[in-house]
Every structure is written in C-alpha cells, then in structure tokens.
Amino acid sequence: MADPQTLNETLQSQIGEQDGAREKLLRLCRQNKLAVVSAVVILLILLMAVFAPLIAPYGEAEQDALNRLQPPSAEHWFGTDELGRDVFSRVLYGSRLSLAIGILPSIVSLAIGILAGLLAGYFGGWLDYIIMRIADVMLSIPSLLLAMVVMYTLGSSTVNLFVALSMVGWASVARVVRSQTLSIKESEYVEAARSIGVSRWTIMRRHILPNCIPSLIVLFTLNVPSAILSESSLSFLGIGAQPPAASWGLIVNQAKQFLFTQPWLCLAPCVAIMIVVLAFNFLGDGLRDVLDPYRKNQ
Questions:
Q1: Which of 191, 265, 279, 296 could bond 41 through an S-S bridge, CB–CB 3.0 to 4.6 Å?
Q2: Mean pLDDT of the chain
Q3: Exposed, middle or buried: residue 81 (CB in 10 Å: 0-12, 13-18, 19+)?
C-alpha cells in the first residue's frame, strides 16, 4: 500500500501543474490579445476545412461552362474560374489539402527532430557528431530548394509532397531539443533517477522530453506556416499538388494567366494563405512570450 504522504505529495504536484497551465493560459489571454484572436481564426479555418462539403455551395470540381470567368456576385462570392468552377468552393476545399500538408509534415518532422535531438544530446560522442553534422547540412540548404529536389526526384504527387516537406524541417527541431537535453541531463533529479537504475530511455521520455514541450509547441506553430508556404510555392511552380486536387497554391497557379484581367481568381487563395500564415505566426509569438522563462522574467 502506498504511503499517504507520498500520495498527498503526488496529488499536490498534479494540482500545481494544472494551476501552472491555467495560469499560463490566462496570462496569454491577458497579455497578447492578438494571439488569442489568431487562435480563434485558426480554429474557425480548421472547422471550415473539416466541414467544407457542408459549407461550400458547389462541388470541388463542379463546372458551369455558361458562367466562365464571372466576377464576384451573390451567386458566386469569389467569382468563377476559366472552367466555370466556383472559386469560393475551391478555396474551401483547397484549405483541406493546404492545412493537411502544413500540419501533418510538421508533426512528422517534429517527431524526427525530437528523436534525433534526444539521442544526440543524451548520448553525445560520435552519435552527437554524426547527427549534428547531418543537421548542419540540412540547415545549409534552403528548405524550398531541398523540397524541390525531392519532388523532382520522386515525382509530382501529394504523397511525395508530404515526404518532401517532412524531410526539410527536422534539423532545427533537433538542435533545440539537443541544447535543452544537454542542460537538463545534468540536473539533480536526472542524476537521482540515473543513480537508482532508471533506464536511459525512461529518463529521456519522462524527465527530459516533458521539459522540452514548451519550446516544441512554439516551434510547431512556427513550422506550420512555413510548410504551408512551401506547399503553395511548390504547387504554384507545378511540382506540388496536381489536378484535379485543389490546394491554394494550385489555384493560384491555374489563375496566374488571368492576373490582369480577372484578378479575383488569384486574390481569394492568396488572402487565405496570408491569413493562415499570419495567424500561426502571431499565435507562435504569443506562446513564446508566455512559455519562454527568459522572456517571462524580463
């Protein structure tokens, strides 16, 4: 049977962690209204992407040859494209692919970076040297150029776009996790866990990784807009998402020939990209101000 004092201390620590998280959330709401508004905007856009089939007045590829290149109106809020497709519906459906390609590769690159950073920081030695030199090479190459090389090598498809964007973002995460691992592994509680025979993997999973979560949350909110911009750039260049799929970059690519005659075709997806990227950046800045202990002390 467990010691009552130990149970009491465990319960108090859990309550303290919940109070700390609640305090950080309240501080974010008080100090950075822009971050809160950005979080609401992101939530609304995610809901619109999920329920696009219910919100969109027309189908993703539904064509109306009699209403080609129509300007914005009550029937077609953002006008129609060269095939008579409703641009508003296309933007709604395109948000699903653009957000998925922005979020899922960021999660994959985050997982790869966490594993590489933990291994490099905790074990050190030759493993640290090899991982960090690979990370240096990855960071020395512009991410968009590296993604283009991968796409040209593997071919233009949505799956290859996921693979390309997952490969270009892990190096910065690995460096952050490694630096925090180097400082945390020398802490007294880690030394105590090591002295009583706790395994290395348990120490990394239960004692080091949780202390890296605040920085990882900020990195994730800043990596997502970068991935969305990369997807839009690759699709605009014709090596990203391919028709008949709809993504914001692909819509801009198909509408660029009408830029000076029907500018609304490019305006709608470009504004959508701008809003999402700004919202994630503002949210990331707000979370960094709240979760970074150095900024909090200042």
A1: 279
A2: 80
A3: buried
